[in-house]
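Q: Make up one entry.
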Amino acid sequence: MAYNIPDTYEDLTPGAQLDKKTLNKMVWRSLFLQASFNYERMQAGGWLYSILPGLEKIHTNKNDLAASMSHNLEFFNTHPFLVNFVMGIVLSLEQAKSDIPTIRAVRVAAMGPLGGIGDALFWFTLVPITAGITSNMAINGSVIAPFLFLLIFNAVQFALRYFLMSWSYKLGTSAIGILTENAKEFTRAASILGIFVVGALTVMFGATKLNIVIANGKAPIDVQKILDGVLPSMIPLGLTLLLYMLMKKFKWTPIRCILLLLAIGLVGSGFGIWPSIWPK
């Protein structure tokens, strides 16, 4: 028999103020946000597990706790590194014993914009920049490069998790206004920076060159030099745009794109189109 979630809690007395220890505990639990990921409710199981210590302190009435757990087990999906922002807002509403439909609406409103912001901030900005720098260090023989990448990446995301947890809990629903007011501008700025970095990485690490020289008496024609005179790194750019088109228009997966590049590399090297990858 399905549990009927009420619109209001039985005990409307404001809940206890959550201490720093409880907030930090929920930050650590949020690392398991996607541990029970499924295609029906997405991150709902991990969300409830993360926020449960706060709910147990706020709701001393068992029926209220059951109702809170039930509606917090509904569909939920946001960026895993920014989830603590939503947690702080929801906990402040739970503590004030706001009506359940309001808490539901706020949770949905807060989780949406964070997906785009998180992708722009982490996958399009922090990761390309950090990976680009440390990859170059690794190519030059630095053993510390991969550890430095992990250190920088995790230091940023953990610092952000702790900050957002405390900040949004103190701000409550007013944090949503701050988020939605600047979300579009922030996402656009971070995306532009990310695209700029990806373009730079394409030039730096896209080393594909043609190995075609056309006989022309005493002045052979080097096709690669002609292409460089038109646009340096034209072939890496072309391959990047090709992969973008395949993923965007034809819905190719990254694995298929990797296999395509492998095939192009092997065939081209075998026919002498690219510099040989085989030891001489």
